[in-house]
Amino acid sequence: MSSQNHQHSSEPPTPAPTPAPAQPGPTSPTSHGGGHRRLREIDLLRFLAALAVLLYHYTGTTGGPWDDHNARELFAPISLATQFGYLGVELFFLISGFVILMSAWGRTMAEFTISRITRLYPAYWFAVLLIAALYLTTGQGRGRPENIIPNLTMFQQGMGVQNASGVFWTLWIEMHFYALIAILVLTGITYRRCITFMATWSVLAVFAQETGAEPLQKLLIPEYAPYFVAGMALYLIHRFGPTLLLWGFTAFSWAASIRYALPIATDTPYNIPPSNAWPAIPILITLTYAVMALAATGKLRRLNWRGFATLGLLTYPTYLIHYELAPPLADLLHPALPHWAATLAITATVLTTAYLVHRLIERPLAAWLKPRLRDSFTRLNITEPTRHHAGTPHRDTPRDKPQDPTPTSETQPPDPTAEHHGQEPHGSTPSAPIGSTI
Q1: How far apart are alpha carbons 87 and 109 in whole angstroms?
Q2: d(CA 312, CA 41)
Q3: Cβ 204 vs Cβ 222: under 8 Å
Q4: Do residues 30 and 239 touch, judged by C-beta distance below 8 A?
C-alpha cells in the first residue's frame, strides 16, 4: 500500500420467509464448484502488491530513505517502472473487496468483528510500537508519545491525529469499507443484497464527488470505492458464475478507477510527469483489473504452490514495517554498500522481520484474543452478565456448543458447514437468492 501521508481531498430488507434448505454451493471461493481450498493465487497477488509498494518507496519515489536524496533519480532508469509501484495499493483494495466479502459471508456481526480485530491489530500494534522505539533510539520518524497513543487505536486519522507511519492512511480507507460492509453483515449477506449494496455505493459515491459534499466524500471514499465494489463483483463471479450485470459492475468500476487514478498520479506525493502518466496509468489499472478477473474465473488456479500461502501471510507485516525500517537501515548500510545492494539488504531484512512478526506476534496474539473476544460477545446475549471464572462455562452457553472457526487467513474461506445464512444456488446465472434467516 502506498503512503507519504497521502490523502485525496478517500429500503430495509423485507423480512424473509422461512428459507428453504440451503442448496449446495461453493462456499469456499473455488471457481465453479471446486473443493474447499485456499486461494494461493490471491496470496501471491497480495505479496506482489506489497513488493511493488516497497520498491516504490525505496526506488521510485521523489523522496525515499536515502539521506534526502531523490530515490527516483538515484535509481533511474529502473525508477521509470518502480515509480508506478504505489498502484499496488489499488490492487490491495481490489483484493480486499474480494476477500472481505468472502470472509464475511455467512457470519454474524460478532464473528466478522472478531476476524477483523484478530487479523489487523496484532501486527499493527507491533508496527506502532516499533515506530516509537525507532524514534526514541534514532530521533527519526513520527514516534512522539502524543502521536503514538492515538495511533494504537487505528482510528487516529478520524481524530485528526497524524499517522505514525506514511502507510497507515490505507488502513483508514479499509476501515471505511468495513463500516459499510457491516451493513450487509447485520442484515444478512445474500446475492441480491450485495447487488443492491454495490449499486447504491457506486452511484452515491459519484454524487458525492459531483456535489463536493465533504462529509459524503469522507464516508463514501469515491476515489477508492470502485476497487472495493469491483472486488465484491469479482467474488460474486467467482462464487456464483459470471453474469452480464456483474461484469457491468466491474467495467463501471474500472472506468471510474482510471478517472480518479490519473489526477492522483500527477499530484503530490507521486508527482509523476503527465507524459509518463498517460497511457501508463490506464494500462496498469487495466492490468490490475484483468489479473483479478483471471483469478476470479479460475484462470490462475495453477498458481497453487504452498509457498504462496506463506508469502500471503508476510504481506501485511511487510507493508506495515517496510516504510519506517528503511531510513535507519539505509543510514547503516550506505555508503558502505551501493544503493542497489543496500536496497536488497533492506528488503531481505524487512521480509525476515515480517516472518518473525507473523510467527511471534500475530499468531500468538490472535490465538490469545479470539477466545476472549468470543466470550465478550457471548456475554452480550446475557441479560445480566454474572461473574465468570476462567475455565467455567457460562450457564447460557452450553458446554458442547461448537464455536464457528475463524479462518487463519483472508484467502482461506470459512468452513461451508459453519454458514448461518441461506445460500444462493450456484450456476452461471444465479436464480433469485434465498432470503436470510435473520
Answers
A1: 31
A2: 9
A3: no
A4: no
Q: Say how far residue 261 (Cα) sits from the centre of its chain.
A: 19
Q: What confidence tens digit (pLDDT) does each residue in 235-259 have? A: 999 999 999 999 999 999 999 999 9
C-alpha dihedral sign at 70, 74, 79, 80: positive
In tens, the pLDDT along 341-390 reads 999 999 999 999 999 999 999 999 999 999 999 999 998 887 665 665 55
CA angle, corner 351, sides to 37 and 92, nearest 5? 55
φ/ψ region of 230 (left if φ > 0, alpha if ψ in -120 to 50, else beta) reads alpha
Confidence of residue 67 (pLDDT cuts 50, 70, 90): confident
Integer Rg of the chain from CA: 22
How many of the other CB atoms lie within 10 Å of CB of 415? Answer: 15
Query: What cell was used for 366?
Result: 490472535
Spatial separation of the C-alpha atoms in residues 4 and 282, rounded to whole Å: 23
